[in-house]
Amino acid sequence: MEKLKIAIQKSGRLNEDSIKVLKDCGISIDNGKDQLKASARNFPMEVFYLRNGDIPQYLKDGVVDIAIIGENVLKEKGGNIAVAENLGFSKCRVSLAVPKSSTYSKINDLEGKRIATSYPNTLNAYLSGKGVQAELHIINGSVEIAPNIGLADAICDIVSSGSTLFKNNLKEVEVMLRSEAVLAVSPMIAEKQREILEDLRFRIKSVLVARQSKYILMNAPNDKLEDIIKILPGMRSPTVLPLAEEGWSSVHTVINKDKFWEVINELKQLGAEGILVCPIEKMVL
Q1: What is the pTM of this model?
Q2: For residue 14, which of 41, 39, 40, 51 has the smallest C-alpha distance?
Q3: Helix (H) / strand (E) containing 262
């Protein structure tokens, strides 16, 4: 049987999130400790566990068909590899940072300065676009210590919470790229594997939409139904069912979790009671 070959990070947070999204898609993977390759039991897929920085080359060479990888790594090493889906997890940014004591005001302040980075391609492209020339020091590892040891005047690195910058007395001054995990596709993927990929994408979309949504049901007074329905986005329109108690109805709908508390407060003000909130496992649109 033809199988779809997918690469994911060998270890770390991206590995955990990648395994979780595949599991939520109903794909069971037989992966033992320290295995570099494993098969799915119930889906035509082989999983390759690779170093994050090696994955773009495996995609280019067609060794794997697809990969779950950080957009920052893909842009740095992947050239024009296509992205099939943005996955919404492992979010970070690639930023420029300088010592807190620096009097930084604009990107041109880095003209002729020394910048330490693990992202030379991304940094070069950004500086060129701004018309700035700087001296790059390529470092694999703890980039943030470079200014403290006199190796560089600034750094370019990934930032998540900013705590590492704070600990090293640095401040973020330019965000060059906002990144998240993506599903990347090899330019050499075969037609049969592309068909399997479309099935996987369908499952992933159902999982991602569900993660962003909440199912809510409530008791609503009939004289406020029209106003309540107006503030409920729903998938198409809310479901309204009469209650045994006259003058009341049960309203069911789906709302975006980012607007959850705002919507709940409005519902309460309109007299909604007994509001129940349930997670959604999958949502097929």
Answers
A1: 0.86
A2: 51
A3: helix 260-269
